[in-house]
Each structure stands twice: as C-alpha cells, then as structure tokens.
Amino acid sequence: MTKIKFYIVDVFAKEKYAGNQLAVFVDLEKQLSSEQMLQITREINFAESTFIRSIEADASYGVRIFTTEYEVPFAGHPTLGTTYILAKHFNKKPKNEIVLRLKKGDIPVAISSPNNLEESRFTMQQVQPEFGALFNSKLISDALDIPLDYFDASMPIQDINTGLPYLIIFIKDLETIGNLRLNFEKLEQFLKQEKLFKSNNARGLTSSLFFVTRETVEKQNDYHTRMFVLEGNTVWEDAATGSANGCFLAYLLKYDNSSQAAIVEQGYEMGRKSILFLDGAVSKNQYILKVGGQVVPVSEGMWSI
Description:
Number of strands: 18
Distance between the termini: 7 Å
CATH superfamily of the largest domain: Diaminopimelate Epimerase, Chain A, domain 1
Number of domains: 2
C-alpha cells in the first residue's frame, strides 16, 4: 500500500490546541489526483489541508490548498503552516524567507527566527486587494436577521478580495459580536442575491463574512473578530483566518489610516485562542499587506492512499 507523509500543525497559536488546525501532505511525486486531495481534505475535516507538490529550481515550493468543498487559490493559515513544515523538514539550512507558489501567485513568507521555528513569527505578504461592492447595514440586518443596533454604523461594509473574498462588517462591541448566529438558508439566499456565491460570480468563490469589533477580550489586542463561511450545506466558524485578516488590513488602510500595525484576536468563542499580527501601508494605491503569527507542531504520520 502506497503511503505519503503528513503533518498536523496549529497556526496563529502560541501553544498546541489553539489557533487554526492544518494538515500538510507531502506529494512531491504527484501521486494524488485533484479528487483524491479533496477526499483526503474531507476525511481529515479541518478547514483546509495543503499538498506540497514540487520543489522548484529557484527553491520555491508548489503548493495546492483545498477546503472540504473545493480547491482555493489562496488561504492564510495554510500558507503559514505549510511554510513552517518546509522550514523544519525541507530546508537544509535556515532561511529568512520561503516562497510558496500558489494558484493565486507567488507568496513570500518571512521567518523571523529561522533557528528557532517554534518561537518564530511567520509573516506572509498578500497580493493587491480587489475592493468590491459596498453594502448598507440595513440590507445585511434584514437579510441575515442580525439586529440593526448590532452594527457599528460609522464603518462601511465592503466585499474585499486578496485571494479569497470577505465582507468586512464592523460590530459595536464584544457582547453583540458574541451573540451572532447565522442561518444557512438566509445566508445562502443573501449571497446568491448579491452575486457573492460561487456559482454566480466571475471569481467562482463564495464570499465569507468577517465581523470585527474594537472591543477586545485581552487589552493588548486591537480588534476582536469572527469569521463565518458557507460550506457543505452549513455555516462554519473559523478559528483564525489569515486571508480574511489580509482583507481587513486593506480595509483599515483604505478607511482608517494609510499605515497600520495591529494585533487581532480570533477564535475565542470557539475555545481556540488565535493571535494575528497585521502590518501594512498604502501609497499611490499600492498596498503592502503583511499578516503573521506563530505555528505549533501537533503530530505527524503516514497516510495510506
């Protein structure tokens, strides 16, 4: 029976069993078909799994990312978690940067302490953002049965994409963001109506919802967030979302200040404390979007195929 190596890590975490879970599979001989990669991702049932498919002549790595529903061109915590595995198990000498070749493009990931990976911060630079449609809070409130007084009316609601699309929605405080409950049927209807569903927009991707409040659980952090995604006939919450935070960083640069450094907490409602570091700037409509965090190893083994 053929077997391939796999690793499990927690991303945007300072200790095991926090942050966002990721399975990383090594398939340099390209034994797996796209369908098999999707089946494996569904079997392990994390938000995403990645597959290391090639070592390029320039020392970059070809990587594919799957959710339990489909292959995606980019995702945040899979990018950082995969980089940790490459740095730990593939690099003969410590490196300050590794480049992943993803469907969305080449993503460089900086490694702050290559000689001490468990204490290192991994920071990716995301591609230029695409700013999509704006929405008013009354529309979102009516469509999703979220009380109108939950919203922070001072902040716009916008669809933003740096590889995966998100609606950035400001909520007024911790209590209201903690009370959020989304209904699958209503969310699906809203996304289809606004052409934000995978089957009726040019991107072929469903927009997820990223809720933000300035009130935080831990005072050293700047924002508290929750992310909800529509997949597999249900609404899932994500413990830590690097791609969404890249979109959020672009949002802050556009609407708040042209230079940003922020600490974001996520996953607290799920019991998976996650910490993400945002650093960015915009000048002449060119965005620098950096999202970072730590990675913690959990397990490794062989997968039968």
